[in-house]
Amino acid sequence: MQKTTILGLEFNELSIKPFLFDKVILFAYALILLAFYGIYEIINVRYFSGAVNAHMLALEPTNEVFKESLRTAVFGTVGEVHREIPWTLFIANYMYMIYTGSGIIFLVALAELFGIHLVAKTAASFMVAGIAMVFAGLFTIATDLNLLNMIWMFLDPNYNTGMWLMLPLYSIYIPFVLFEIYLILTNKREWAKKLALPILLLSIGVDLIEYYIQAKLFSMNTARHLWTEFPALMLYFIISAFVSSLGVMGILTFLVHRTKKEYEKLMGLIKVSMLLFISLLGTYEIFAYLVVDKNAAFIILFGPFKAAYFIGYIFLSLTVPFLLIVKTTKPIYTLFASISVVIGGYVGRYLFVYGGNANPLSNRFGIGFEQYDIYEVVKTYNYVAPHLGEIFIVVGSLGVAILIYKVFDILFSINELREH
């Protein structure tokens, strides 16, 4: 294959055909089309729901039916579009993609720093997978913020808002990671190793600052118990992200490196690392639910989330992968364990976001449990299932990650092992 070199970086000389008809690219396009349909659905529910007009409301301003119709038009009725309940699938997916992607980047940078030759040879594919997941997370949250909000973010800036805090964070982090990928692709290994430490610090910084941003955006100090009282919350995010990150790395290793002689050793390294972080996560879960607020814990452990928690999270994230990898060296079992922790990790993030908001209520005013708005019946348990549009957008975000990864591979052959 002919190559063109620009700034030391070798591009594969290709026609437009591989970008239009590659099977993986077409699959990514299909997922992204689902996302655009989901965006259409969300916009339709948010802004174009059937409602009374201003003239009707002016004639009968005290009419309860008209007031309820107006409330529906403003706030929506389902899932994320229900504006009194901002913590839903968009946030769960955003957090999962950002933390897992930055976790992959952290682990690869750590391996570079410690000179683990095997990981360094595959660093290009892993780094691109990590940054692709970060972009997929940003795509998800962008659809939630919507274009109108982002335009007014610049027209009428409020530098204390979460969006303005996210902008400098990713404006620094993403170029650093892309430059590290450039150094790897141009075989400047010494420089890549030197840049690994700043990337390690930035990856942790993403986790820490994201936590602060989420606190600022969603007011975690207003009695959302899992967010305010979950023991060592940042530790939970980091450990669970590493488990999911290793799962993604295991799946990627199988998909792109299984024909290479390094495959078994690489899967063995992922297996050992996964076993370590699964053990840490299991220990953390036991400790956390012994000391966290009992109302929040009971909703997840014994309430309506119990099946998802024990089967979707504990069984898939901890039990299945532990049993699959603890007594075997066969790579295929590490692959199954990787698939299990990726699914289980997502369920865990979903539970944390939804479960953390299911019991955000307190009696701090001495008049009973708080309610979300004046129209809502007072209740001690709160849950709204995600809208179909949200689900389509989340599925489409996976297409964004796949598309970015495949474009990098078509242009730079990142799936090749790079000796150094």
Spell out the key features of this protein.
420 residues; 73% helix; two-stranded antiparallel ribbon; mainly alpha; Formate dehydrogenase/DMSO reductase fold; single chain
Topology at a glance:
Layout: E1 3-6, E2 9-12, H1 17-21, H2 23-47, H3 54-59, H4 64-75, H5 89-113, H6 117-121, H7 123-155, H8 162-185, H9 189-218, H10 225-229, H11 233-257, H12 263-291, H13 294-301, H14 306-325, H15 331-358, H16 388-412
Antiparallel strand pairs: 1-2
Number of strands: 2
Q: Which strand-content bin applies to the residues?
A: under 5%
State the CATH architecture. Answer: Up-down Bundle
Structural class based on helices, strands and sheet pairing: mainly alpha
- State the CATH superfamily name: Formate dehydrogenase/DMSO reductase domain
Mass-distribution shape: globular
Largest sheet: 2 strands, antiparallel
Radius of gyration: 23 Å
What does the average pLDDT come to? 79
Number of helices: 16
- The SSE string, one letter per element, is EEHHHHHHHHHHHHHHHH
